[in-house]
Amino acid sequence: MTDSNKEQVYKTILQWLKDYGYTIKEDKSKKDHLEYYAKIFPPNESIKFFEIVSDEEFKDGFLLRMSVAFTPKDRSDFEHLKEDVQNDLFIRMHKVLSPIRLLCKIENSVISVEKYLFIDVNSITCKQYFWDSVIEMSNAMYLIELTFFEFIDNLFPKKDR
Description:
By secondary structure, this protein is of the alpha+beta class. It has helices at residues 3-19, 72-79, 83-97, 124-155, and strands at residues 23-30, 35-41, 50-54, 62-69, 103-107, 110-117. The longest helix is centred in the C-terminal third of the chain and has 32 residues, at 124-155.
């Protein structure tokens, strides 16, 4: 992909998102360094977002990334778990994400889900691939949240009163 093609792909992706009601809150591009970054909020969403990232390291691709940051209480609950119990949660999350071919990273109590995209904006199948990836990512974040809360609820069941 040439430099101008990468810029065209980036602009096209942002336009596709805008066309379907997504809001681009940040758009930081350094064309001279081939660095692109956008923070995107789905329609009717003001908290959950995903990012589109690319720099020289990604060559001709873009990274689609969503993160779940725990609330302070969730983070405290998680950090007080023994290491083997934390690892069990990580394994459960990987089991959720592996079948849908998404990468999962967990650092500093933030769970990130990532997917590398290589797009030819002149192909309708690539547009479908992009939208399938966005939907998979949104669904994955929902599944991660459910997995986390189910796991915590199983560890600390609420007593019936």
